[in-house]
């Protein structure tokens, strides 16, 4: 299976810049790159912060841009999103019985579970008992390998200011215990941190990547006030089979020229 993962589009009101760049222009470039290079992908998942301020106009523009994507797309909610406006514009997004934007999808690779980690009224994350009960039901029904998609990571990343708006520590511990009981979690994809990170958490492989508009500087010493950069955005091309999950980060706006080394003259 071939999956596209991107995150943190942060769309603004139409024509409005954000930190000196235009999120809509970058997302359009991303869609063009996917269409030209990876239109054979089975699914594209965007892991939250779809709109910077949760404006309905931003969601309208998001829908307009994604209408040109040749790959089916699944949206995940993030802390910058507004739950009611998001679902108003994208009514196809399923909600659980408590109203959280959560759903599960059977694929050839296993069960994909799209989770709502938003803690209302704050940029931090949560995964309360109500959501964990829903997740436990999905895991019980899955019966196969599971891939999780959410906005907040359920662990500390070492970027301290971002970890302060990460997932609630007690919720993260309870979530870990639930996933360990199931035991067939193959990979966790998340957003929020605007940095490429890969590793494992409690034996579960994870990955995230740069956002579409702006990035968080890699600074493991700063305690407060994270800094932003304009490193190029990226999306991930994920190849999944029975034994492997391979994640390629594609810096699609990197100006570096592609060249054939066989056409280069020999060095003296």
From TrEMBL:
Keywords on record: Hydrolase, Metal-binding
Source superkingdom: Bacteria
Domain Calcineurin-like phosphoesterase positions: 1-196
Residue spans crossing the bilayer: none
Biological source species: Marinobacterium weihaiense
Protein name per UniProt: Phosphodiesterase
């Amino acid at each position: 299976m071939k999956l596209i993962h991107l995150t943190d589009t942060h769309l603004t009101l139409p024509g409005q810049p954000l930190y000196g760049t235009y999120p809509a222009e970058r997302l359009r470039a991303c869609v063009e790159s996917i269409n030209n290079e990876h239109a054979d992908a089975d699914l594209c998942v965007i892991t939250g912060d779809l709109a910077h301020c949760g404006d309905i106009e931003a969601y309208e523009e998001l829908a307009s841009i994604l209408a040109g994507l040749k790959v089916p797309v699944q949206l995940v909610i993030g802390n910058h999103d507004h739950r009611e406006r998001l679902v108003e514009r994208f009514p196809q997004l399923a909600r659980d019985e408590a109203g959280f934007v959560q759903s599960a999808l059977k694929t050839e690779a296993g069960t994909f579970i799209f989770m709502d980690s938003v803690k209302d009224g704050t940029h931090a994350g949560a995964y309360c008992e109500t959501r964990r009960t829903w997740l436990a039901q999905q895991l019980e029904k899955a019966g196969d390998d599971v891939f999780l998609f959410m906005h907040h990571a359920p662990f500390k990343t070492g970027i301290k200011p971002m970890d302060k708006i990460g997932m609630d520590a007690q919720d993260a511990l309870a979530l870990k215990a639930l996933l360990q009981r199931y035991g067939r979690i193959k990979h966790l994809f998340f957003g929020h941190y605007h940095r490429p990170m890969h590793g494992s958490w409690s034996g579960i492989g994870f990955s995230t990547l740069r956002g579409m508009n702006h990035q968080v500087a890699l600074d493991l010493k700063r305690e407060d006030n994270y800094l932003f950069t304009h490193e190029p955005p990226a999306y991930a091309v994920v190849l999944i089979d029975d034994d492997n999950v391979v994640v390629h980060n594609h810096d699609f706006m990197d100006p570096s020229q592609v060249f054939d080394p066989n056409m280069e003259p020999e060095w003296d």
